[in-house]
Amino acid sequence: MQSAAFRSEKRKRNMENTYHCYANRELSWLRFNERVLEEAEDSRLPLCERLSFLSIFQSNLDEFFMVRIGSLQDQMLLDKNARENKTNMTSGEQIDAALAFIHKLTARRDAAYNGLLEQLAEQGIRLLDFAHMEEESRAELEKLFRQDYLPLLSSFIISKKQAFPFLKNKGIYAVAVLSTKAEKKKIGIVPCGSEIFPRLVPVPGRTGCFILSEELILHFLPLLYKGYKVSSKTLARITRNADIDADLIYDEDLNYRDHMAEVVKKRKKLAPVRLELSREIDEEIIQSLCKNLKLDPKRVFEYDSPLDHSFLFQIEDQLRSHTDLFFAPRHPQPSPALDERKPIIPQIMQEDKLLHYPYESIRPFLQLLHEAACDPDVVVRHEVA
C-alpha cells in the first residue's frame, strides 16, 4: 500500500512533467516574432519586403514590452511569488526568460539591418553618418541645423534644482554627459521630436544619401550646451507600460471616442519598462537614468541599429518604381459561389455561402449591405440590455 508521502511525491513529479508539455505564453509570442524576423533575414525575399518585416518586428517588440512585460510588471507588484498555471513560472522568471531571448533576437535584428543597408546601397540609397561625408556636406548640414533645428529644440540639464523631465513613450532623445570646469558630470537631454522634424534628412550634394534627424541632432548637440564639454553622448528611447484595462476607467458620461482618447493618454504616462540606447555611454550615467526612471538596469538595451525602424517604410517609398524589389501585387478573386450580376439576398436565401477573405473579393458582402439598406422589408432590431 502506498504511503501518503509517496503519493504526494508522485503527484509532484506528474505536475513537473506536465509543465514541460506547455510553452510559456510570453516566450511563445516572442517565437512568433522570431518568425517575422526570419522573413527579414530571408535572402530569397524581395529587398523592400524584408525592410517591411524588419520594421514590423520592431513595432511588435514595442507592443510586447508595453503590454506583456507591462502586465507581468504589474503582477509582480501584486504578488511576486504567484506562478502561472502552464509552466509554473513566476512573473519575474517570465520577464528574465523573455529578456534573455530578446537580447538574442535584437542582435540578429541588428545584423539583418546592417546587411540590408548594404543591399540598399546597391540600389542607390545610403544612410550616412558624419564620418563618411565630405566637408562640404557637413558644412551644409550644420547650416541646416542652425537654421531649422536649433530654434525649435529644447534642452534640459538634470541637477538637484532641475527635476528629471517626463520622457514620452517611444520618443527618441539625445542624451549627453556634460562636464563642467570643476569636473562635475551632469546629464543633458534633448527631445528629437520626430513629429516636428522629418526622420530622413537628405545629405546635400549626395543624391540618394540620407541621415536620420536624431543623428543630426546628436552630432550638433554641443551647440545646445555652450559652456559645457560633451564627454559622451547617445540616443535613448523609452518604452512605457501600456497594459490598461479600458473597462476599468470607463465613464458612462463619456462617449466612446473620448473614453478611448483617455485610455491612450494614460498609456503614454505609465511606468517605463525598457530603455534603449544607440551607443555605449558611462555606466554611471546609465545608473542615474535608471534611478530617475525607476527602471531595473536589466531592462537597458544597447543596439547597433536605429532605435526606431519605422523610417524604413519611407525608404521603400523611394524605391516604388523598382517593382522587382516588392512582392507582385495580389488581387482578390471573384467567388464562384455567388453571381455578382444578380441580387445577393435571394442567392443566400437558397443556401449559405462561404467567402474567404482576403483571397476572394469583398464586393458581394458590400452589395449585400447595400441591398439590405434599400430593402423596406429589412428592419433594425433593437435589443434591450
Note down, in words, how this protein is organized.
The protein is 44% helix and 12% strand. By secondary structure, the protein is an alpha+beta fold. A hairpin with a 5-residue loop joins strand 3 and strand 4. Helix 3 packs antiparallel against helix 4 and helix 3 runs antiparallel to helix 9.
Topology:
Elements: H1 4-19, H2 25-41, H3 47-78, H4 91-122, E1 126-127, H5 135-149, E2 156-158, E3 172-179, E4 185-191, E5 200-202, E6 209-212, H6 213-219, E7 229-240, H7 256-267, E8 272-277, H8 283-293, E9 300-302, H9 312-318, H10 344-350, H11 363-374
Parallel strand pairs: 1-6, 8-9
Antiparallel strand pairs: 2-4, 3-4, 3-7, 5-6, 7-8
Helix pairs in contact: 2-3, 2-4, 3-4, 3-9
Defining traits:
44% helix; six-stranded mixed beta sheet; alpha+beta; 12% strand; 3 domains; 385 residues
Write a brief caption for the model:
The protein has 385 residues and is of the alpha+beta class. It has 11 helices and 9 strands. It folds into 3 domains: 1-122 and 306-329, Up-down Bundle (Methane Monooxygenase Hydroxylase, Chain G, domain 1), CATH 1.20.58.310; 125-295, 2-Layer Sandwich (polyphosphate kinase like), CATH 3.30.1840; 331-378, no CATH class.
The figure for the number of domains is: 3
Q: Output the CATH homologous superfamily of the largest domain.
A: Polyphosphate kinase middle domain
Please give the CATH class of the largest domain.
Alpha Beta
Alpha carbon gap, first and last residue: 58 Å
Main sheet characteristics: 6 strands, mixed
Task: Report the total helices.
Answer: 11
* Lateral arrangement of strands in the main beta sheet: 2-4-3-7-8-9
The helix content is 40-55%
